[in-house]
Here is the input.
Amino acid sequence: MTRKLAAGNWKMHGHTPNLAELQRLLDIHSNAKCDVLLCPPATLIHRMATMCTDSKLAIGGQDCHGAVTGAHTGEISAQMLADAGATYVIVGHSERRTDHNETNADIRSKAEAAIAADLTAIVCLGESEAERLAGSTIEVIEQQLIESLPSTANAENLVIAYEPIWAIGTGMVPTLDQIAEVHDFLRGKLREIMANAADDIPLLYGGSVKAANAVDIFNVSNVDGALVGGASLKADDFSPIISALDVHAK
Ligand code: PEP
Here is the structure.
């Protein structure tokens, strides 16, 4: 069975007092069967990873550079994230693609750098509203997948997150059929590329996931979890999402 992952992306939110949210998750979900991940701002990674020692919860970065080291002021390498205690990193989030003009090729090199540093790369894909309305969703997803898939990917070091851009932070969610169409497509395409390993790669849905819609979304075929933004900031909001996924985990 593909492992299940509830992942939270705190984006540019979170200071020392917010460590209490992690502590609450640790208290509530110490026996979680699904994997649980929080990706806080880089400033909190080390402290949060220390809090998670010997727990079921993991900590990840929100981005990394494609190079190992060098003259890149303000950037953070995958090795630095690992050194701080991260075990995952998100790459290719649509906010990075938009705000920093990241291309599929950039994302592939970031994912390869992440894997080389022993991190699991969460590669984000997703269509814009215009692309959805034009009927080109699958075409867009296929191109993003092929062009950003790291050559070193395997079932242990890769997670794919399908995040329609128009659903992120908007309260709009695709229909369950629309989610199934993309996730089934992704599984099939990964099988073509990676054969049997494809069945063990978690496919996350992301975009306005809340406690109220998580149960239905987790029942969709080939959905192995969620990448959650706003609803991951408070333990009270994220906890029911984790619980909804937990019933699907071994
Ligand atoms: C995200 O940032 O990846 C995301 C899915 O955000 P939200 O859950 O707030 O829509």
